[in-house]
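Posting this for the archive.
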Amino acid sequence: MRWRILRKLRNPADAFLFLRIFCFAITVPTLLRLKLPKLQSLLEPRGASSTPQPAKVQKIISYVDPVLQVGRPLVQSGCLTRGLTLYYFLRRAGLDVTVCFGMGKERGEFAGHCWLVKDGEPFMEAKDPRPVFAVFYSFPRGTAVPVSLQSTDHGRHQTDEKPY
């Protein structure tokens, strides 16, 4: 059942993209051992940003979640793997997205979350994470995270200080 997505790979280019996404997703736990600025430098595309390629963007979006399902146990599921994998491939397809890392309290426990932002709004999220998670780091570094992404107030103090 979880292998059904493989039938949708119509040509070698689709299969190669799926394989590249799979291989990248496997590396995410190792990449997460790096400091965030180093991680960012590795994930950012080199050179000028290209014009978004809608067909490629749609394929990437449609392949990432199935890779997370099919790839178990080699691919760790979760927001970090999903967010960083989407970020890496969507940026290379020319889509202007930001990856955000946030912390907050969920069901009385501290929790973290990683999500993408496009045009100032959460992108590809079933539920808006901003009311629960305060952004402590985002990249690309030159991208300012709007205050609305920092979190709703909920008694937390906003600051311009760097998190490190």
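The beta strands are 98-106, 109-118, 121-123, 133-139. Residues 82 and 162 are 25 Å apart (CA to CA).
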